[in-house]
Write a structure and sequence with these properties.
By secondary structure, the chain is α+β, with helices and mostly antiparallel strands. The chain contains 15 helices and 13 strands.
Length: 368
């Protein structure tokens, strides 16, 4: 809100460990986490033993966030190198192993027992952006505001076109696989934090989810931090694209907070769930290179126009952050070079090689 310091931002990124020879995921996350700990980095173990996660400290500026990400990504790559594996930043691994072994913790064993093949066919890697908000009711209202724009964020961040040694026909196949979970995808329109609590209680009571942490909606009030967590994006290969994506999300939350403060009516309640589902499918399928659907009006337009429309809406917040020029320049590069999915497809078309796509997504240790 005007006159107040911008909310803090932080990012969580999920990565896949791969064998250097075969380019297939390998279940060695405990070894990499142990190697990282000797470097002073605590890594989170993900559902499958081929995955790890980093989380930045909270940041006040985009430059600060970029510095954190550069440092953490470099440390993860170095720790993986200590173990003799690579770590890649792709929404899905372009090649897959015979199976994705579940990490041996009580929670993950319980998930494997409950959800079966859903848990064993993972290797799904997202970019989760946390933006600070004053309280849980405001977090719910911000998530409502974000609903119509989530497909645009998905199209921009799509980075999982190649999977199982093939072009999936989708820019974000990750989001398609992820949607199979009981509480994944776009959040419903929520009346209040009490309404959210009622829904979570019902989902747990029916066995659809084990606990509140399995509320996997693409925008949700965090269950452990005073933030809105936007989970719609594929993990990004390029560091600058992570920072741009997080800055856009931060500015969107700021815009929502401004609208709430002046009593502006949200369009969330009028969004037809069928149109929102269609907008999601178009974003996952087309990415940047096709049409987008406005789930409020039903209007069709090029995906890039929809993203530009979104940036226009949040432009005052980007100006307050001092990031409008950086975001405009970053989007110009994306329109010219394509996003992660576009580059994956270009490499695969030229080489007919999923390992080549894997190599292009490999993180490198920071230079000494």
């Amino acid at each position: 809100m005007a006159g107040q310091a911008p909310p803090t931002v932080g990012v969580e990124e999920e990565f896949v460990l791969v064998d250097r020879e075969t380019a297939r995921p390998v279940g060695r996350n405990r070894e990499v986490a142990a190697a990282a700990s000797t470097r002073g980095l605590d890594l989170a173990l993900e559902l499958t033993s081929c995955q790890i996660e980093i989380a930045t400290p909270t940041s006040d500026t985009a430059d600060e966030l970029g510095d954190h990400l550069r440092r953490l990504r470099g440390m993860v790559a170095a720790a993986a190198g200590d173990v003799g594996v690579d770590v890649i930043a792709s929404g899905l691994p372009p090649r897959v192993p015979e199976s994705f072994p579940v990490t041996d913790t009580p929670r993950y064993r319980a998930m494997a027992a409950r959800y079966g093949m859903l848990a064993h066919e993972q290797g799904i890697n997202g970019c989760h952006v946390h933006v600070g908000v004053p309280d849980r009711d405001i977090a719910v209202a911000v998530c409502n505001w974000l609903r119509p724009w989530l497909p645009a964020l998905l199209a921009l961040s799509a980075n999982s076109a190649i999977y199982r040694d093939a072009d999936t026909g989708h820019a974000s196949w990750r989001s398609v696989l992820w949607s199979r979970w009981p509480a994944a995808g776009p959040p419903p329109h929520l009346r209040s934090s009490a309404h959210l609590a009622e829904l979570v209680e019902l989902l747990v009571a029916t066995g659809a989810i084990l606990d509140p942490h399995m509320l996997y909606w693409d925008a949700r009030p965090s269950d452990h931090l005073p933030t809105v967590e936007v989970r719609v994006g594929d993990v990004q290969t390029r560091l600058d694209e992570v920072v741009t994506f997080a800055t856009i999300v931060r500015a969107a939350v700021m815009t929502a907070l401004d609208d709430l403060a002046r009593g502006a009516e949200s369009s969330s309640a009028t969004v037809d769930p069928l149109l929102l589902a269609a907008a999601y499918w178009k974003a996952a399928h087309d990415g940047l290179d096709g049409d987008a659907l406005d789930p409020v009006t039903g209007a069709r337009m090029p995906a890039r126009s929809r993203i530009s429309q979104f940036v226009t809406v949040i432009a005052p917040a980007l100006d307050r952050l001092g990031e409008r020029g950086e975001v405009d320049a970053a989007l110009h590069r994306t329109w010219t070079e394509g996003n992660g999915a576009s580059r994956q497809r270009r490499i695969f078309r030229e080489t007919h090689s999923a390992p080549a796509v894997t190599r292009a997504a490999t993180l490198r240790p920071a230079a000494a």
